[in-house]
Specification:
Layout (H helix, E strand, L loop, with lengths): L10 E5 L4 H12 L3 E8 L6 H12 L4 E6 L33 H15 L4 E3 L15 H13 L2 H4 L5 E3 L7 H10 L24 H13 L10
Parallel strand pairs: 1-2, 1-4, 2-3, 4-5
Helix pairs in contact: 1-6, 6-7
C-alpha cells in the first residue's frame, strides 16, 4: 500500500464519469493504495444516466469521498452530447465525431487539479484511452503529459515545488484489455454506463460509438457484458 511518511494513505482525485473506463480507473487507484476522492461532473450531457452509475460505483468501491459538480456545457453547445444534434449510430468513423465535447477533458482535468490542490493531493486519475476510442484529441498521451506540466506551472502547489501527477492507467489498453481488468478487479459491468443516447426505458442504445466500442471490447475479451442493450 502506498503511504506517506506519516503513515496516512495518499489521497487521489479520480474523475468518475460513471463509464466503464472511469470505473476501472477508480478501482485501479484504490488497488494501488490511494484514498479515492471521486469527482463526477454533470455537464448537461444527454446521457445523464451515467451520473447515477457514478454514484453506484462510488458506493460499491467504498470510496473515501464522492463529489458531484455541475457545469452547464449545454450553454456552450457544439456537441451531440450537449446540443440538439442527433447522436451518430452508423458505426465508428475515422474523423473526430460530433459527440466530441469542446475541450471537455481540458476543463475536467483543470477542475480535478483545483480540487486536488485544495485537498493537498498530488495525484489525479483519469480513464482516457488512446487505442479503442472515438478519436477525441483530449484522450491522447501527448495531451495528458502536456497538461501535467501546465498544472504544475499554473498552481501554487507547483510553484512551491510540488508537481501534480496525472495518471492515465488505461492509456495504452484496448477495450478488450479494459474488459479483462474489469473482470480481474471483480467489478460488475452493469454498475457502469457507456451509452450516449439511452432509450426511454433505460436501455443502452447499442449503436452509438460508445456502445459499439464497449460491446466489441467485451466480445474480444470473451467476457459477458451485463449491460442491457436495446439493439
Amino acid at each position: 500500500m502506498s503511504l506517506t511518511s506519516h503513515n496516512v494513505i495518499r489521497p487521489a482525485i479520480v474523475l468518475l464519469s460513471g463509464g466503464l473506463d472511469s470505473m476501472v480507473t477508480a478501482a485501479l487507484a484504490k488497488e494501488q493504495g490511494f484514498s479515492v476522492h471521486a469527482l463526477s461532473i454533470d455537464y448537461g450531457q444527454r446521457h445523464a444516466r451515467e451520473l447515477e452509475a457514478a454514484k453506484q460505483i462510488a458506493s460499491a468501491l467504498s470510496v473515501t469521498k464522492h463529489t458531484e459538480l455541475r457545469i452547464d456545457m449545454r450553454k456552450i453547445g457544439g456537441s451531440a452530447l450537449t446540443d440538439e444534434f442527433d447522436v451518430p449510430k452508423d458505426g465508428v468513423g475515422t474523423e473526430i465525431p460530433i459527440t466530441y465535447v469542446p475541450a471537455r477533458n481540458l476543463v475536467f482535468l483543470s477542475i480535478c487539479v483545483a480540487v486536488a490542490e485544495a485537498a493537498a493531493a498530488k495525484d489525479v486519475f483519469i480513464g482516457v484511452n488512446a487505442l479503442d476510442y472515438s478519436g477525441y484529441p483530449d484522450c491522447r498521451p501527448d495531451f495528458i503529459s502536456s497538461f501535467a506540466e501546465t498544472a504544475t506551472l499554473g498552481t501554487k502547489s507547483g510553484a512551491n515545488g510540488n508537481p501534480f501527477r496525472i495518471h492515465a492507467p488505461l492509456q495504452d489498453l484496448t477495450k478488450a484489455d479494459i474488459a479483462k481488468e474489469c473482470f480481474r478487479l471483480g467489478l460488475d459491468p452493469s454498475w457502469s454506463w457507456s451509452c450516449y443516447d439511452p432509450t426511454q426505458d433505460d436501455k443502452a442504445c447499442g449503436l452509438c460509438d460508445s456502445c459499439r466500442l464497449r460491446r466489441k471490447g467485451f466480445a474480444e475479451a470473451g467476457i459477458a457484458d451485463s449491460t442491457i442493450y436495446a439493439v
